[in-house]
Fold this protein.
Amino acid sequence: MRLDGRRESTNVDDRRGMSGKTKAGLGIGGIIIAALIAWISGGDPFAAVVDTVNQNGGLGSVIGGNTEVAQGQREFTEEEQQLATFSKQILAGTEDVWTEVFKQNNWGEYEYPRMVLYTDAVQTACGNGSAQMGPFYCSGDQALYIDLSFFMTMKQSLGADGDFAYAYVIAHEVGHHVEYLNGTLGKAHQQMAKLSKEDANKVSVRLELLADFYAGVWAHYDNKMFNSLEDGDIEEAIRCAQVIGDDYLQKKARGVVVSEEFTHGTSAQRLRWFKLGLQTGDVTRGDTFSRSDSEL
């Protein structure tokens, strides 16, 4: 991505260097990291993801107990500092884009989320978050939480590398913030609390695909505003979407696909909705909750 000269968001709380014992948050990174940890340790990756969903009550929520936080001092590597700067620039881009999109669509004033950078563990208004579950969004304090080591895990364990792939992750979590602001997230969580596990999973999939769509909308307008996309960027996002689909992870972990256990959508679905947002930039096309299962 072309980011030279781009501003950095000031809505950032850098808590790196803190650690503690927590329960996990949930987000686009959650399904990846939970699966990877179980897979690497010889367990069942998808079972780990399902357990996490059940423990957290759906996307955007972080449920936890008491936090034991320890302050730690260390020097950050050049790569870590570059990733921090990059993340602040991407967040700034989402602020610029969504401010304009909200205005154009008469959605009211766009309220900026905060981005919290942390190491290992973090306390949030929703409970306690863990780096093991990757980036997540907490509607309780309207903040997205990121341990930057997640991007290194994406590269090393999934082969999903590149700055636009990383930007897609951030934009997806901001997409959950957009869902919160327009009321979709709260309504979905209320609905999920009343449903069976299988039906709640279907609602979760629709939330995730909508966040993917919003990530595409952001990329559409960010490129229009700043000419930010370079050759190969779209391919990076496509690769990322392909390796975080439920079907891909299930097949890799167990050799079989169980659609009833999907919580995020298939690789094809995630790619389809991201590309729809990217190609059209039309927020009215993000109708994941009015589509039948076969139309997703």
Remarks:
- Residues 197-226 form the longest helix (30 residues).
- Residues 12-295 form one domain.
- Strands lie at 12-15, 18-21, 68-71, 114-118, 121-124, 127-130, 136-138, 143-146.
- Residues 250 and 256 are 6 Å apart (CA to CA).
